[in-house]
Please model this.
Amino acid sequence: MASLGKLLAAFFVWMVTSFLCHKLAKEAVDCFLINVTSLPRVTAPVFVTICQIAVCYSTVNFSDAKSPLFSIMAAAHVIATLATNTSFAFIFASSAMVVKLLEPLTSAFIQSLVLRTRTPPGKDPLCVRRVLESYWTN
Model:
């Protein structure tokens, strides 16, 4: 088991790199939109996403690349990256990040509706369980 110091260091590194990735993506999208006005607005996020995926592919060791689960996870990551970059092109970065931060709650809610499952007791940040229980009892 990793020590608390190592876990905190890993979390800090992840947090800083995630922030830098999003900040640089927003800057790149804005720069593209300012300097290239002849192309559709959605071109900027697509271009930035291709650049981000190329950097990821060139710097990360993909030892499980032949696994079907890896393919699904990679496709989901590309789609999520494109969606985030697209939101940067159309709304303020702060609004895009709020939506991104709420994804786990909306995912849990949508999964509970689609799969007709309940949120386990004690696993309900922001009282999601109460919302879901009121939905199922009505």
The CA atoms of residues 8 and 14 lie 10 Å apart.
